[in-house]
Amino acid sequence: MRRIPAVVTTCAATLAFLVPAGLAAAAPASPASPAEQSYTVVPYENVKVRQLPTRDSAYLATLTAGQSYTAYCWTHGQTITDHGYTNDIWIGFADGFSSAVYFKGDPYANLPASAQC
Known about the structure:
about 120 residues; mainly beta; three-stranded antiparallel β-sheet; 1 helix; 7 strands; globular
């Protein structure tokens, strides 16, 4: 997973991974290799994207509730509890992570077990 240098602005950082799922072909080249499987995820409320899978990690951008986004994997990270749900699963995008607690679907935002980062 490629990490964004600290000198990149939040606006520029959002371009690499906050492309709605249906527009991926028009986006700049993704750091994800073409062989990687991608998945569509939908947050049920606005959710922050962090550089690492922890709440205290650098903020990169916000995903909009109800929009579809392209995710590549899931990983274990900081345990998050919100709206009666608790888990330590974070969804991996091209340049950051968001807690799976905020996505529609199962505890892994419907990513398969084999999609671990």
